[in-house]
Amino acid sequence: MAPQVVDAARATSEHPLGRRERLSQVCLNRWTILLLLVLARILFAIQDARSSLATARREALEGCAQVESIGSSIASMPNYMAAGVNDLTARGLEHAVGALAATLDMAVTGVEQIVLFVVHMMTSTYLCLITLAARGSIKAVADVSSDMAEQLQQSIGEITSSLDDASATLSKALADLQKKLDKVPLASDWKLPSADLTDQISRLKSLELSSGLRDGVDKLGDSVPTFEEAQGYVDDLIKVPFEHAREGIQAMGALRFNRTLLPVPQKQQLEFCSKSSSISDFFDDLLRITVQARTIALSVLIPLAVLLCIAEVCVIMGRVNVHRPRVLRSRSSSTAKRRDWLFAYATTPLMLFVLSLGVAGLLACLLQFALMKVIERATPSLTRQVVDFAEDTVRSLNRTSLAWSVGATDAIRTLDEQINKDVFGFVNATTTAVNSTLDAFVEQTNRELNSTLGGTVLRDPVQEVLRCLVGLKIASFQNGLTWVQEHAHISFPDVRNDTFTLGALDQLGGSDSAADLLSNADGKAGDAITAALHRAVDKLSTHIRDEAVVFGSLVGLWLLFTVGAALYISGASFVERRGEPVANMKVQIEK
Length: 591
Hints:
Elements: H1 8-13, H2 19-24, H3 30-75, H4 77-183, H5 198-205, H6 211-222, H7 228-253, H8 278-316, H9 334-346, H10 349-453, H11 459-487, H12 502-507, H13 511-517, H14 528-577
Helix pairs in contact: 3-8, 3-10, 3-14, 4-5, 4-6, 4-7, 4-10, 4-11, 7-10, 8-10, 9-14, 10-11, 10-13, 10-14
């Protein structure tokens, strides 16, 4: 069938309304109305976003107040925990001091017994050595005396026997000489002396060693000291300072730490929301963005709508005749005809209206999506403010914990000084007394040696043995006691300044954990600030998604009809190539 040609002039003249009437309705053209609908939807979306942001700000401020309350509670936690922590610290110190007292008591008792044991061991050893030396010397002297007496008696016997023989021979010779002298006339009166040595020989035979030497040796054996007096003297002197120290240690074991010396921090009231307008400023910035978006939409779409009205006026005035029917004249190529027909089908006023409505709606969704992304990008800034709140809380905790630790450490150092002054003062006094006692023991031992061995040959050797065996050992023992005296002190560890902030510092490892720090039991308080903004974004996202589905469906409907028309044209081409006529196909588009 041949295409039908419609005369444009005749079509215009046959229109029931004149140009003036049509100009009165120019502002109601479908393109302007469509654009105004898009503008209205954008304005409604912006207003809805402003309402959501206002709600989010109110909820965020409420959440901030709740977070502030939780932060104040956390910052005041040292006040609530101080009583328990102070009691725990005091009980720990009391138990530590009690255990120290018990240990010191056992140590003092052990040292006392060790000192006594050492003294007894040294005196007993010294006594054994003295006894050995004295008894051995006495026995040696006694044996030498016996041998000397026996040898003396034997020698005297031999001498007296020889003297007897010599005396008898001499007496006989003198008697013979006297007889001869008596016969001499002039020498008859001479009398020779007698050679009788009987009395002298008798006295010589009765000669013995003096009994005084044996008596002196026996007396020396009986005078060996037993040191019982020295041991008793030392025992009494040593026990006194140790008993005194033990009394002081037992009194220390009953120590009750004064808990009022440990400080109790004051409650803290954080005001990072009350005195700071950061959250309100944040939402004010977002609201200003919505105002800017509304201004941009009005400044762009309204002039565009006016331009569309002007374009419609131009059409009506005949400067641009868009109502002229497009007539597809017969062409040599049927393919070109079908292509023109498909283009005309897809661009009919109805199809263009559906497509324009869908595209305009998607454009509105795009503008709303851009607004949503702006709000979304601002969310981390709000999260950082929550982290700043957590850091403020931790800083307040740090200050409180530091102040408490300083006071607690001062109290503990006072206890250190008291213990070092009282208890270890007893220890120092004990070591000094023991040193003095050991010196007195040496002096007492020397006095006993002087009283028992004075004037004997054993005095100097025995005193040398005393110096070597006892004196040097006691000097070493005294050096050890002096070292104990110099190092006898106690120092309890200081209280850590992060006692109340360990958990908070562990929790403040990142943004999420920082928000958790200010969360209540259900974990929502810390997120209440950002959650309000998230809800506004989610609400806007839901509206955009729903509208995108609706307007996308309109575009899809246009595509569906266009694809259907294309399939129809393809089928017609296939039939025509087979030589079969296509019935009732008019490549003509009428208005």
